[in-house]
Amino acid sequence: MKKTEWMLIGGVLATGVFAEESTLPARATEQRLELHGHQHSVAGNRPKQNELDSILDGLEYGALFEWEIGHSDGQTDETMATVELGAGWQVTDWLHGDVVFLYEEGGTDPMDLDQLYITLGNTDEFPLIFQAGQFYVPFGHLDSFFISDPIVLELAEGLEKGATLGFEDGGFSASLTVFESEISGANDYNGVLAASYSTESDDSSIAVGAALIHNILDADGLTGALEDEGCFSAEEAAGFHAWLTATRGKITLIAEYVQTLQDLEVDGNDAGLKPASLNLEMGVELTELIGVAAKYEKAQDAEDWFAETRYGLVGSCTMFELDWVAAGVALEYLREEFADETESDLFTLQLALEF
Questions:
Q1: Domain membership of residue 272 as a residue range
Q2: Whole-angstrom distance, CA of residue 64 vs CA of residue 84
Q3: Does residue 42 lie within any of the structural domains?
Q4: Which of 102, 220, 271, 293 has CB 3.0 to 4.6 Å from 114, enough for a Cys bridge?
Q5: Residue whose C-alpha is closest to residue 337's, from 310, 299, 297, 314
Q6: Does 260 map to a domain?
Q7: What is the structure's pLDDT at 15?
Q8: Closest CA to 222 of 260, 272, 170, 261
């Protein structure tokens, strides 16, 4: 998957100007590091150098560290927000393995195994690909310039154990994913059908996609919200998701929408809720090192789980960037308005380092 990125530190460290989009789970690390000259410590049992080089040439790894300090409603909190370590191994042209360990303060303590999956296929030679393991299912594209996660992430993102059969060719991709359901009262398995298309010219690109999920309640944010409400059993509720990322020159537009297609039924009762959310963002690359972005978010039937309306600004600067390491700083402002008419202003400063 080809990408051209300019650094905008905002959770993922980049805006993402895409030459090709995929409905398959993302690779754990983007940067390949070729290692040479290593030898076995026991003389006489050392592998031949060309054999060892061949093995290590397929090894890649990366790390991300994010420190944040936030201020809201008279309170200031400092966190080591993210520590992420990932590695991948291109065993052959047709076999790749990925593993990611993740620590998020208040979320994963201590560091957890986040993703572990195997990919079979080579889309340069054949359009079909197969992935199996633990990964984020392809429901929710989740592009954002901002430090804080968009509400669509809470309604869409799911880390699951399953398998994906995908197709990629000529800018078009489609996939069918089947995975274990974590919702009591629902079927043992869930599924996602996703498709996307992208195209580009010299100074512009556009990528669009959509997905259907059999049971949206497997989204990690919705699962957590129901558990916080003391709900332990839920019926199935399908979900729909659509997204667009368009770039022209130095301007990038992000639009994403997720919708629950049926009223939620929890603990045998109709909750009368069909959660949905829209996220709109526009980012501008002022220089190769500095970018700014604005956003508007609207949520429906979010109760007090998530904000009903959010809008804000973020600015970022890459402090330095080399072939193997980059560091940046970002400052974000968000205004949140909830269904119970409470409001809050959030300021977040983030320092990020990525290998």
A1: 3-36+49-354
A2: 5
A3: no
A4: 102
A5: 310
A6: yes
A7: 31
A8: 260
> Which single residue is written with the structure tokens 């996220």?
279
Q: Number of structural domains, the chain?
A: 1
Count of Cβ atoms closer than 10 Å to residue 7 Cβ: 24
Handedness of CA 53, 114, 2, 194 (dihedral sign): positive
Residues 6+ apart with CB under 8 A from 230: none
Q: Answer whether 38's CB lies under 8 Å from 46's CB.
A: no
Q: Within 10 A of 286 (CB to CB), how many other CB atoms are there?
A: 11
* CATH number for 140: 2.40.160.10
- Name the nearest CA neighbour of 263 among 254, 276, 251: 276
Q: What is the dihedral of CA 315, 246, 13, 310, to 10 degrees?
A: 50
- Where residue 144 falls (left for φ over 0; alpha for ψ -120 to 50; beta otherwise) is beta
CA gap 205, 209 in Å, rounded: 14
The reply to whether 280 falls in a domain is yes
Residue 44 covered by a domain: no
Mean pLDDT by 10 residues, the chain (355 residues): 34 32 44 27 40 69 94 90 92 92 80 92 93 94 93 92 95 96 76 96 95 92 76 78 96 96 76 89 96 96 86 95 92 93 94 93
Which DSSP state fits 241? E
Tokens (6 digits) for 244: 């667009």
